Amino acid sequence: MREVIPQKYAVFLKYAIVGCMGTAIDLGSLYVFVEFLRINLLLAAAMSFILAVINNFLLNKYWTFQNKSSNIRKQFIKFLIVSMIGLLLTELFMSLLVYGLKIWYMASKLVTSGLVLMWNFLANKYWTFKDRIFYVPLIEHYDYDISVIVPAYNEQKRIKKTLEAINDYFRDKPMTRQIIVVDDGSKDDTAGIARNLDAGIDNLTVTSYQPNRGKGYAIKTGVEASRGEYILFTDADNSTPIEEFEKFYPLLKNNEVVIGSRYVKGSNIVISQPWYRVLIGRFANMLIRIFILDGVTDTQCGFKAFQHKAAREIFSRIKVNRFGFDIEVLAIARLLTFSVREIPVSWFNAGESRVRPVKDAFRTFIELIYIKLNLWGGRYI
Questions:
Q1: Both 310 and 196 in a single domain?
Q2: Which pTM value belongs to this model?
């Protein structure tokens, strides 16, 4: 049996009906506030507008678009933004048509209402109430027990030693492993040196691309190529020795995310950073804990492990490619209610760091704000 009204038109018709109801509520409540409750006109107009917005939001969410998202706060803010823009467009079009083109005000209102109705409908359909779907390509069978991701940028002097250390560590372990080197647009021979180790290191994969995209992007690339039940990423300078994974492996059974920390009790900083970098780092971590990740003492340690599914879920959502990605990864993990375990590690400050203390600290601060806005806006769920 054919539909009386096609679905795509039925949705628009519902939206128009809700809009008419909202207008009636707006005008009716304004009259009551002013004439019976003697409320100031401007305050009454604002109150009646908010009542109409709430009515329209609830009916459009649960009736018009039948949206099932539980993030009502995010959606209401979006709906309010769309409504405010619609109000501004009404004023703009009315001024243009009435005062600019000298069109009768009732005809101008009719045209304006149609244009603003279309704006509100499309903006709410494709933004406010659009179900965000993250494609997470999971695998049914793990080829390895652990995938080790090594992001590298201009590391030709250190990559060989690090890869050999990882290979030596796992050689006598009762677990199978995959090593993935992601050459993040290096200008030197990092990728070539890593590929030359293929004969001596089993299950070594080297991925290279241009230009440099950032550590976060490199690790995301590694996660997408991983085939291990667990995923570990570690720095190419081996600042946290691969032997520290000995502490991580037993914890990964019951924790989706396990991260290394240089600042919790039991950590061992064998070679410290320069004092100014330590000071910048601790100040940055204080801001991170205040605004996003209360309870995490070291977000930036480059030694983190994940259950495979958790890594895929998290990295499919990241939007920050550079140093702030660590913060984003942990914020997403917490948002998805994954268990995050922070444990002490040994750490050796390596020379020739790629980190530029002032410039990168400023960039990370900007990314911190960006991540917070994404959390408020519901862009990760």
A1: yes
A2: 0.69
